[in-house]
Write a structure and sequence with these properties.
The chain is α/β, with parallel strands linked by helices. The chain is built from twelve helices and eight strands. It starts with a strand and ends with a helix. The structure holds adenosine-5'-diphosphate and magnesium ion (MG). The site of adenosine-5'-diphosphate has 17 residues, from helix 1, strand 7 and helix 10.
């Protein structure tokens, strides 16, 4: 049975997509079978996996509406060595169209049922909002990975997400927990970042992953080559950190 994780944070630009594709590639490099689900109409995880979002025959949009299956819609990321259920702008319409459907929060969960045995990990790249799309991700998942930058308002911003996760846990998905907070784009030379990092550890204890992802330009350059940073420049500090994070995730799920 696959372990299913949402990569979520209601803020944009905090490293959700970078974390999704690089963790996927890191896990694939560790011989794990991985499916990435792009749940963001921007389609960045799709493009960053080397798949052209303008040329899709089917996407997660048709899957959510029940028009096709995950198996039919998935595409291989040749660069990353994982499968992708891709997305493009069409997905923005799903937000409205889902409202009238039965089990509107559980469409993704139901669609994933038949492919559970094909993967070790399913990673869902969520959009930067607590929307019906994100809710579908949270209902399908066993846990949430929260990438965050160690900035002044970081803790404050977390409370909305934590509350949403609690509500989903109570009402829709009793499996759901926060797996961990991942410190990303970290620059140890910045005193404030170090301080916020210490606060995070004090507040959340072992819910903070021990791997820290440094700020590293190679990770930012990789998407324009249609590759995860882990593949684009495997020896870079950013890539090495995500590979280490993959190993940490494999350890964590053994305790789940
Ligand atoms: P989100 O999906 O949360 O909107 P992204 O993963 O797209 O965030 O990241 C936002 C921007 O920051 C992108 O341009 C990305 O390339 C860059 N970025 C993400 N992580 C890092 C990192 N560790 N070092 C440097 N740049 C990064
Ligand atoms: Mg994104």
């Amino acid at each position: 049975m696959a372990k299913i994780f949402c990569v979520a944070n209601q803020k944009g630009g905090v490293g959700k997509t970078t974390t999704t594709v690089n963790l996927a590639a890191g896990l694939a490099a560790l011989k794990q079978r991985v499916l990435v689900i792009d749940l963001d109409p921007q389609g960045n995880a799709t493009m960053g996996s080397g798949i052209d979002k303008m040329q899709l025959e089917a996407s997660v949009y048709q899957v959510l509406l029940g028009e096709t299956s995950v198996l039919e819609a998935k595409i291989r990321s040749e660069s990353g060595a994982y499968d992708v259920l891709p997305a493009n702008r069409e997905l923005a319409g799903a937000e409205v169209e889902l409202v009238d459907l039965e089990q509107r929060e559980k469409r993704l969960q139901l669609a994933l049922d038949p492919v559970q045995d094909r993967y070790d990990f399913v990673l869902i790249d969520c959009p930067p909002a607590l929307s019906l799309l994100t809710l579908n991700g949270l209902c399908a998942a066993n846990g949430v990975i929260v990438p965050m930058q160690c900035e002044y308002f970081a803790l404050e911003g977390l409370s909305d997400l934590v509350n949403t996760i609690k509500q989903v846990h109570a009402n829709l998905n009793p499996d759901l927990t926060i797996i961990g907070l991942l410190r990303v784009m970290f620059d140890a030379r910045v005193t404030l970042q170090q301080q916020v990092s210490d606060q995070l550890m004090a507040h959340f204890g072992d819910k903070v992953f021990s791997t820290i992802i440094p700020r590293n330009v190679r990770l930012a350059e990789a998407p324009s080559y249609g590759m995860p940073g882990v593949i684009f420049d495997k020896s870079s500090r950013g890539a090495q950190a995500y590979i280490q994070f993959g190993a940490e995730m494999i350890q964590r799920i053994q305790k789940m």
